[in-house]
Design a protein that fits this description.
Helix content: over 70%
Largest sheet: none
Strand content: under 5%
Structural class: mainly alpha
Distance between the termini: 32 Å
Radius of gyration: 15 Å
Number of strands: 0
Shape: elongated
Order of helices and strands: HHHHH
Length: about 150
């Protein structure tokens, strides 16, 4: 396998892992969010599930086994109510955008275009949740973190 293909596969697997975490996170969001924002949370959940499934196909097409979802994920903060559920949704989108920006760098052609579209969609959802935008969505440097990945709980 070429070095470029290895990098693309690594970025695909990271994006898939981030989508697994986002699907899990939106399960938490959906359980805490106010009724008036529940359809927005459901739409985001469905979008992340669709992206997750597409990424798993991409990984298989490269001849690899897709990374599996963890049984549970550590949330970045407690989510006891609707206000914190909104914050979690924005955080999930920021993290997903960061991982997809890595995929944009590693991919080319149609995959690169789909990854860029995923960054845009995540950034738009984050703005809707947060009520404001950031200059460069998905850049870990903006958040002051070394990684934008979501860690499964132990």
């Amino acid at each position: 396998m070429s070095e470029a293909k290895k990098e693309r596969l690594k970025a695909l697997q990271a994006a898939l892992a981030a989508e697994h975490a986002a699907v899990y996170g939106y399960g938490v969001v959906g359980g805490r969010i106010r009724e008036e924002r529940r359809s927005e949370a459901r739409a985001a959940y469905d979008a992340h599930r669709a992206r997750r499934d597409a990424l798993a196909r991409e990984v298989r097409d490269l001849g690899a086994e897709p990374v599996a979802a963890s049984a549970a994920y550590a949330l970045p903060f407690p989510v006891p109510d609707s206000d914190t559920a909104v914050l979690l949704a924005a955080e999930l989108e920021d993290r997903v955008a960061g991982v997809y920006s890595d995929l944009v760098r590693a991919a080319e052609g149609e995959l690169r275009g789909r990854a860029a579209e995923a960054v845009r969609e995540a950034a738009v959802r984050a703005v809707r949740w947060r009520g404001e935008s950031v200059a460069f969505p998905g850049l870990a440097e903006r958040a002051g973190t070394a990684s934008a990945s979501v860690a499964p709980s132990a």
